[in-house]
Amino acid sequence: MRTAYSVETVRTAERELMARLPDGALMQRAAAGLAAACADLVGRVYGSRVVLLVGSGDNGGDALYAGARLARRGAGVTAVLLAPERTHAGGLAALRRAGGGVAPSRQADGIPAFLRAAADLIDRADLVLDGIVGIGAKGPLRPDAAPLAALASRARAAVVAVDLPSGVDPDTGEVDGEAIRADLTVTFGTHKPGLLVDPGREYAGSVRLVDIGLSLPGEAAVEALQHADVARLLPVPGAESDKYRRGVVGIAAGSARYPGAAVLAVSGALRGGAGAVRYVGPAADAVIARFPETLVSDRGPRKAGRVQAWVVGPGAGDDASAVAEVLAADVPVLIDADGLRLADVDAVRGRDAPTLMTPHAGEAAALLGVAREEVERARLDSVRELAGRYGATVLLKGSTTLVAGPGGGAAAAVRVNATGTSWLATAGSGDVLSGLTGSLLAAGLSAVDAGSVGAYLHGLAGRLAADGAPVGAHDVAAALPLAWRDVVRG
Ligand SMILES: NC(=O)C1=CN([C@@H]2O[C@H](COP(=O)(O)OP(=O)(O)OC[C@H]3O[C@@H](n4cnc5c(N)ncnc54)[C@H](O)[C@@H]3O)[C@@H](O)[C@H]2O)[C@@H](O)CC1
Ligand SMILES: Nc1ncnc2c1ncn2[C@@H]1O[C@H](COP(=O)(O)OP(=O)(O)O)[C@@H](O)[C@H]1O
Ligand SMILES: [K+]
């Protein structure tokens, strides 16, 4: 499991560790790891041109000490200081001792000369280190720092963010205004939520974690399943299993207008671990024609026969009665697409069995009564808010998919999944996800596990199916067994 902790938790862990170590030891660990990562990235340190963007906190201190290490190995290192009088004094002295230089400053030389010099240096650099701000960030980048982020983001040089890209909110991944676009982020002690959740994740580039010895007890703020975690959660039939013991998933989906949604949801469900798929709705002929193994019924969810979990909503049009019948069932229910619009909030809140809602940003926005952009800007807050309002587990789809448990509060970890690819942004791929995830629910996974395992397999299948080329949703479904095998084989 990859875990990310809130700034507050990181600060507490740092204080405890610092109390047991000599002054400055932690920063030296951070700077050593940072310099090593930079050296790996540029390949040849000797003769390389390195620019340090240095803010007034310890994040700047890390950049200065790492710069000193690179200067000792023969790099030409220049620091651009945002606040010379408040720069980390030890770091700056170390850089000077190692032969590094300092660019003209805003305070002494005026803003135009400062920006011209910074632009020149960044233009000619092989490597830019972003030490503007780290976990001490408050609000959007300030007006003096924002132009540096813009210059670095356009640079031909490799850009390494120190701890996290400046301009990305450490706890949420929100980006308000300018932010550093890094090729690599070297983060210390633990991942930060903002590195795993979009839009921050996209700004971070690849992320390297440097162990500085922090011990982080208690619940993470954000966690991301890895192959081994998913492998442990996948349902595997035992010797005594039969199709009913493996679980039956009911799919109430599709309409005369959208029969394909039913077919795609079933295509995902058949590959999700349930022993049988029961389809209920007006697209039975289309479903059977494509998947003859499906059990079909035209009697509505209540009379369709026993299932261990329901999926309701994909392509369902305005069939509110099917949604109400499914919500009345005492088994786990996944609500997707049209079902989200038709589900009564009190009926969802009143359920005893687990409920999993799977909106994309547009659907989440409609449920929350805000604009879609607001959900995309603040994905963590949005998923927690929805989970709290409905008392349900919520899976918010997108480039990073988030899964929040029914508590909705900040205390419980939100799962994040980034196995996907933007090729998954294709009509019907959400239907495949809902069938797959419903199947995992029927096989006995909890709502949070089913959602996060479903998103993981679906993203991986998308990647395997696409392999750099456009694919249809049915290709994603067909690649699910490949993804499953890939996970099991490790
Ligand atoms: N505390 C520790 O034990 C360690 C801290 N480390 C580094 O220290 C960093 C945290 O240091 P600090 O607590 O000094 O905080 P930061 O250096 O992250 O930020 C604080 C400084 O940035 C300025 N600032 C805040 N918001 C800003 C904004 N929106 N735009 C521009 N400037 C802004 C503040 O005025 C303040 O001077 C970590 O991110 C990490 O890089 C590492 O050295 C590892 C050890
Ligand atoms: N840019 C992206 N990167 C990765 N995955 C994406 C991206 N855009 C969409 N997806 C994934 O593709 C699927 C699309 O689902 P959805 O929006 O419900 O589509 P549809 O309604 O057409 O089935 C979701 O699993 C979502 O997470
Ligand atoms: K930074």
Automatic annotation (TrEMBL):
Q: Taking every annotated instance into account, which residue ranges of this chain make up the domain YjeF N-terminal?
A: 10-220
Residues noted as binding AMP in the record, renumbered to the chain: 397-401, 430
**Which InterPro entries did the record assign?**
CARKD, Nnr, Ribokinase-like, YjeF_N_dom, YjeF_N_dom_sf
Q: Where does (6S)-NADPHX bind?
A: 58-62, 134-140, 163, 261, 315, 360, 431
Q: What are the alphabetically sorted keywords of the record? A: ATP-binding, Isomerase, Lyase, Metal-binding, Multifunctional enzyme, NAD, NADP, Nucleotide-binding, Potassium
The protein's superkingdom reads: Bacteria
User: Is the Lipid biosynthesis keyword given for this protein?
Assistant: no
Catalyzed chemical reaction(s): (6R)-NADPHX = (6S)-NADPHX; (6S)-NADPHX + ADP = AMP + phosphate + NADPH + H(+); (6R)-NADHX = (6S)-NADHX; (6S)-NADHX + ADP = AMP + phosphate + NADH + H(+)
Domain YjeF C-terminal residues, every copy: 226-487
Q: List the NCBIfam families.
A: yjeF_cterm (TIGR00196), yjeF_nterm (TIGR00197)
Protein's UniProt name: Bifunctional NAD(P)H-hydrate repair enzyme
The record lists the organism as Streptomyces plumbiresistens
Annotated gene: nnrD
